[in-house]
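Structure, all three chains, one model.
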Amino acid sequence: MAASTSTGGAVAAPSAAASKCYNAECKELRPDRPRKGWRLRAGDFAELCDRCGSIYEEGKFCETFHPNASGWRCCESCGKRVHCGCIVSSHAFALLDPGGIECISCARKNFNLNTGAAWPSVIYHTPLSDRLKEHPAKGWNQLAGSGPVPWRQAPTLFNTSVTRPELQQRASTPFEVDPIKVGDRRIASLDGKRIEDYSERFMNGIIKLGAADKFENGSAGHSIEERLNQCIINPQQSASIKEEPSNSPFGLTVPYSSGNELNGHGGPHFRPAPPPTLAKHFYGSMFVENNSSGDGQTRNGRPRTDARGRNNLLPRYWPRITDQELQQISGDSNSVITPLFEKMLSASDAGKIGRLVLPKKCAEAYFPAISQPEGLPLKVQDAKGSEWVFQFRFWPNNNSRMYVLEGVTPCIQSMQLQAGDIVTFSRLEPEGKLIMGFRKASTAPPSDQDNEAAKTTNGPSVPDSELADPGSWSKVDKSGYIAKEALGIKSTAPKKRKTNVLALKSKRLRGDNEELIELKITWEEAQGLLRPPPDHQPTIVVIEGFEFEEYEDAPVLGKPTISMANGPGKFQWVQCEDCSKWRKIPFDALLPARWTCAANKWDSERSSCMSPQELTAEELEDMLNTSTSAVSKKKALKQESDSAEALEALANLAILGEGEPVPSSLSSQATTKHPRHKLGCTCIVCIQPPSGKGPKHKPTCTCNVCVTVKRRFRTLMMKREKKQTEKEAEESSSKKQQPTPQQLPEKPREDELPTQCNNSNNNDASSSAVGGSVVSSPSQKKEEKEGCSDEDPRKAKPSDSPFKGQFDLNIQPDKEEEVSPRTDPSSMMKLLQDATDKYIKQRLGPCLDQDTEEKPINGVLAKTDRNEAGDDTSTALQASQSNSAEK
DNA sequence: CGTTCGCATGGGG
DNA sequence: CCCCCATGCGAAC
């Protein structure tokens, strides 16, 4: 294993242990090349002898050297013993609110499940993977809330600091550990400092991660680490130049078939090592830029881009594959997956023409160099292990080339992909095999089933008018969960989603959207938990007489509570973090993430953990059960309704959370005009400049954008009030009110919208930032959607809509179209607008046409809800036609 | 006449 | 203004 001497940590080995293993229990002399252990308080790393290093890396340090020491506890979730308290294992567990601890694996898992927040669901919870999540290369993990470091700076694809030999060496490290065990045992945690450290290192290109580097917290494992490292480090450039095979299929190896696993749903699972690959040729270089052929650049005049080109890949093509996906793809423990790029399928790509246009730079950077338009056959293995042979070729185009993969139809169909979905290209090392994965833009609601979606849907005829499918952006599944990344491999439910035929045009927007958030929380849930950031004073902004608090920082997730709003006395139950007792608090109380009895300002008698709990065990159980069932119900409802709601939620979140430091990429792309909107279009989408750009709007600003926003906000507020009133009335009479005539068929669900509204009023209305990840993505999506007059076909299910009676879209769509100078309605305004727009479009569809252009589309889309592939296509087509006609 | 092929066109960045 | 690329479109099959 290569020693990582280039890292600061390695260099700064504790002098005290200069000659001895740092492990006090060990008397061994440290070898010349000590193995790096845990991170010391000073920031250095313990240097261990080989034996201890190995033990440490296997995550057995604590159990080996101080098994009887105090501090051993069991994970509340999996029961695994975890040593708590020593520096070696300090990052291996998480403290639970109710007490107890969880191993990092479970903690992360649960965190994801419960909050949908940023803990990426990665199979291997190794220190490295954790770091990776935080590290610029988050793209791999689909991390939400990416750090400030631009993804592209990550060594993942472009860094060449590590040589292939090293990689190989590492790949075959004797420390290889069974992945499953590793997954089980490995634990790690996010350590701000460490993360930073690594990020920095990565950024600096000094990524020689020595083994020690990777296992600082003592719970690391090898194979995973190795793989991850390689994935991360694996530089395309490291490969040697490959010969352009002239006629044999490019790529080798026979796919192993383990489709089942690949299609597994949900949870991370380990895929058994696939049968040995048949051909072990080393194609590491196969996709490397190759100009050696000399003619590579001729034919069409323009030289192929050189290796530098890969550094210029547009964000939209950056692979966002998760390590989990990678793992699944690679399967073989000896293989390393190197994500190359991804592309959202256009209508043309997904159509039956069978030609997938490849981004030029990607094609030139990662695929074999071709000098003839005819190109070469290219073998590609899909996520299921099936192998396909496509013709990789190009067309002379102007003075350039247009690269395409021909014959992709069967593959696309087998994966049931359609326009808007994303195909990812990765390379499996050392085989050099090209792997094609995919990600559904969204998962369709069950109701939308159409099994042949893939084949019927988009054809070249599918007009771009297809709006962006909200779902495609938000990755919302019917259950209301967002970002169910279903890399073809384990896709959570390869259901067909016809819904997104759209998104075609928006793909760019979406593509630029770096961080798709992995939100596994219903939007209402998230909404309900949003809190203003602690210690931040809001700026009060008054819009139309309504005061909004604007926060500069992202909101935080507050503590979940159980609301008891059934009876006359509405209140909610919240559990103390310290004593776990449940306390009754006002119905409208918003709690911080951490709440204890001491904070119970509503009940002085129970403002201490010493105070007995009001609820009896029985009552508590009952309450919890009720709560659970209620949640289930909600979810069930949600599932029935389409993901549009989730989107809305996101949009709302975006509104609430504006102001948060959204990744620049996001903000920049945020407001691109919808492709359908051409010059002169004055719709609300088009009149807005990209967020973050343009002058900031003052509260008193009366520009069109602001006016629109205000109007919408006002309406929203009014609606909210109305809603509340209705709700109360409803409750008292326990009679469900029918939507008023003016209410749209689809209104926000009471439990959802109201929450949002409340939040708006209280804190975020104007713009507090939502948790970074949460917001950024949603906002983008929303915007994109918006631009697209996106109609989420799925939204159609009026009856299912949880939003009933919520929103008053009493807005005058027309006005929204007002032409305006491209001022930048500051983010919040914009977000607000977007959200509103989105909502309107989605919910109202044809009823309210805020944008004449979109009107027809809305109607059409609304009709296509059921995802009939055929229908979609046709409707889409119609829409597009009408659309174009208008133009 | 429906497809496929290959190039052209043009919007958008 | 240039490049990229989604799509159009005519010719060939």
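The first strand of chain A starts at residue 35 and ends at 39.
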